[in-house]
Specification:
Elements lengths: L1 H22 L1 H13 L4 H7 L7 H21 L4 H21 L12 H25 L6 H4 L1 H22 L3 H14 L5 H4 L7 H40 L5 E4 L4 E4 L8 E4 L4 E4 L11
Antiparallel strand pairs: 1-4, 2-3
Helix pairs in contact: 1-5, 4-5, 4-6, 6-8
């Protein structure tokens, strides 16, 4: 009965899930809906066709669950193993194809998530070994139980060895690779100033954008201040030039008064307006500025 339930679960959820992953029916329907109602330009079409990246929060737990089922029920119900092996074979082919040819890689973490996966694999091994000990006790095979009790201890010891041996490489960059990278950088770009490069190398892009905007505002303000200062200097120099060279003398000129008649027949009134005073400038050449 237990084998029947888990076999059905693996076939319905596992095999069908792998087929759905290679067909990608849900993203296909979503793309056509976006193409009908939301796509207005070529850029919108590219965004609608974006496949995204692998859904790690959903994919990794399901794979670890099937691994746990296979390793736990390998002794209890061995008939479950062929279905588990078929699932992992199909999953390897499908996800390899999807990661290489379909999905877009959003970031490169350097396998930083592998220590978490490794710890869960070790936990699955310990659970399967403890269940094996319980099964042998129920089957009246207590004589072999002391020999199997060392298995969880060896597994946990192997886990500690892996943590001390390999986990620092995931947490910190290895010195050998860092040295090779520094040598390559010095060879390809010998004139790079590392002090200025490392000043904002680890700054988050959102904060870098804010700093660029502030620097741009400072540059604009500086340009405005320079323009105002240059304009003030020009005005001051022009004023000093006006004070240094006196304006030429001007004499008021008057025009003859004009008689304006009120329109009517016969003319009854005549208005005599005195013309406003006009100024005529008489330029005299200065002694040092005469032109030949």
């Amino acid at each position: 009965m237990k084998a029947t339930f888990f076999i059905t679960y693996i076939m319905v959820d596992g095999w069908a899930g792998i087929a759905g992953e290679i067909l990608r029916l849900k993203p296909l329907v979503i793309f056509h809906l976006k193409n009908m109602f939301m796509v207005k330009s070529e850029r919108d079409r590219e965004q609608a066709m974006d496949p995204g990246s692998v859904d790690y929060p959903e994919t990794l737990p399901s794979l670890q669950l099937y691994f746990l089922l296979g390793i736990v029920y390998a002794v209890v119900t061995p008939i479950l193993l062929p279905f588990i092996l078929n699932f992992f074979a199909f999953a390897y082919l499908v996800y390899r194809h999807q990661i290489i040819n379909v999905y877009n890689q959003q970031y490169e973490s350097g396998a930083a998530f592998w220590p978490h996966v490794h710890s869960r694999i070790i936990a699955s091994l310990v659970i399967s070994q403890l269940l094996l000990l319980g099964l042998l006790n129920t089957k009246e095979a207590a004589n072999s139980t002391p020999l199997l009790a060392i298995l969880p201890i060896l597994t946990l010891s192997f886990n500690q060895y892996c943590k001390h041996r390999f986990e620092p490489a995931f947490r910190r960059y290895p010195l050998e690779e860092a040295m090779n990278k520094d040598i390559m950088d010095q060879t390809t770009e010998p004139d790079v100033n590392l002090t200025t490069f490392l000043a904002d190398a680890y700054l988050h892009p959102i904060f870098r954008s804010f700093e660029e905007e502030e620097l741009e505002e400072v540059r604009v303000d500086k340009v405005r201040v320079d323009k105002n200062q240059s304009y003030g200097d020009n005005a001051q120099s022009q004023t000093s030039d006006d004070h240094s060279s006196p304006s030429p003398p001007h004499h008021p000129t008057t025009s003859a008064p004009q008689d304006v008649y009120h329109h009517g027949f016969p003319p009854q009134y005549a208005y005599n307006f005195s013309s406003p005073t006009h100024y005529g400038y008489h330029y005299e050449a200065e002694p040092g500025n005469s032109r030949d």
